[in-house]
């Protein structure tokens, strides 16, 4: 697979916090952003695989929507551990989170995936080619729909994925991060898009920024979609994106609390075909999840709490033709 590497030059976190807070206050009734020491994200309500978002922060965009539309490219199959290697991460310790497509090659159907995976070498040196040399904690979730089109959220049993995935990677260490709060949306943008838009307004194409982390829908409701299994061959290719989005995807509204793993970019000046924001979610009780769209308009109770870090490098892997 083709892998290209693109360095980023992010401003200090305290500068970003001021920009993000200003953007959110234009779209939410109350909002704040500050630099804090990351809490232990392995604890409720986040329940992540590693405690922090620090240590060699990086982001990768793998595959893309061109591997789904106009027809699924079934050769687009990936290993999260090998992708970590492509991201030049250490096999001795690391943490990945993000949003992507579940490994249809392992589970027998198409579905959503919320990657949430960390590893530590058993001895002095681990190897991505020898997973037994590492202790792997796989907290990833597979989110699918059953025959009644109801959400089913399950623990992932493999470390694979498919089609497309957006990943934030780090050593999983605690350290300074952005803590962001927002409540009661008053504008038209959802939570991550408001952050992205605010960063783009200030830094434009000349200083693209890439962030990743976790946010909690801590109150209110939000809309999600879940990809069902692939259509039958006689129903392919998709006629257009309207058919894919309106007829094929399964939509759901879920109440808080929901944990949301996200990767976002303020700009794509190199023309890498980046997915500008991708967020997949799960509930601690594993009853619901999916791809986050937006909080339900008119819901005065909606509230968010986020912990993000900014990447110093972006990798573009297996970009669709």
TrEMBL record:
<keyword id="KW-0539">Nucleus</keyword>
<keyword id="KW-0479">Metal-binding</keyword>
<dbReference type="GO" id="GO:0005634">
    <property type="term" value="C:nucleus"/>
</dbReference>
<feature type="domain" description="DUF1907">
    <location>
        <begin position="19"/>
        <end position="317"/>
    </location>
</feature>
<dbReference type="Pfam" id="PF08925">
    <property type="entry name" value="DUF1907"/>
</dbReference>
<dbReference type="GO" id="GO:0016788">
    <property type="term" value="F:hydrolase activity, acting on ester bonds"/>
</dbReference>
<dbReference type="InterPro" id="IPR015021">
    <property type="entry name" value="C11orf54_DUF1907"/>
</dbReference>
<protein>
    <recommendedName>
        <fullName>DUF1907 domain-containing protein</fullName>
    </recommendedName>
</protein>
<keyword id="KW-0862">Zinc</keyword>
<keyword id="KW-0378">Hydrolase</keyword>
<dbReference type="GO" id="GO:0008270">
    <property type="term" value="F:zinc ion binding"/>
</dbReference>
<comment type="subunit">
    <text>Monomer.</text>
</comment>
């Amino acid at each position: 697979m083709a892998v290209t590497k693109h360095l980023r030059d992010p401003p200090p976190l305290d500068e970003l916090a001021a920009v993000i807070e200003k953007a959110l206050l234009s779209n939410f009734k109350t909002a704040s952003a500050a630099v804090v020491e990351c809490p232990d994200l392995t604890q409720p309500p986040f329940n992540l695989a590693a405690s922090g978002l620090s240590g060699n922060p990086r982001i990768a965009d793998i595959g893309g929507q061109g591997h789904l539309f106009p027809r699924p490219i079934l050769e687009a199959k990936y290993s999260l551990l090998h992708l970590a290697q492509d991201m030049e991460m250490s096999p001795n310790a690391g943490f990945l989170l993000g949003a992507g497509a579940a490994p249809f090659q392992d589970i027998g159907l198409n579905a959503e995936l919320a990657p949430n995976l960390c590893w530590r070498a058993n001895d002095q040196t681990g190897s991505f080619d020898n997973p037994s040399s590492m202790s792997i904690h796989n907290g990833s979730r597979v989110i699918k729909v059953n025959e009644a089109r109801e959400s089913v959220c399950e623990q992932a049993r493999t470390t694979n994925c498919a089609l497309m995935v957006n990943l934030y990677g780090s050593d999983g260490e605690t350290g300074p991060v952005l803590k962001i709060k927002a409540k009661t949306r008053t504008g038209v943008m959802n939570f991550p898009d408001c952050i992205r838009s605010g960063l783009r307004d200030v830094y434009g194409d000349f200083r693209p920024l890439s962030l990743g982390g976790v946010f909690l829908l801590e109150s209110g409701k939000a809309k999600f979609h879940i990809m069902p299994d692939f259509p039958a061959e006689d129903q392919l290719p998709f006629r257009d994106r309207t058919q894919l989005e309106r007829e094929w995807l399964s939509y759901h509204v879920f109440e808080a609390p929901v944990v949301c793993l996200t990767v976002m970019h303020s700009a794509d000046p190199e023309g890498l075909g980046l997915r500008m924001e991708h967020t997949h979610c799960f509930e601690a009780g594993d009853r619901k999840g999916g791809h986050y769209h937006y909080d339900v308009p008119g819901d005065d109770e909606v509230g968010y709490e986020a912990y993000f870090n900014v990447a110093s490098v972006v990798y573009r892997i297996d970009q669709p033709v």
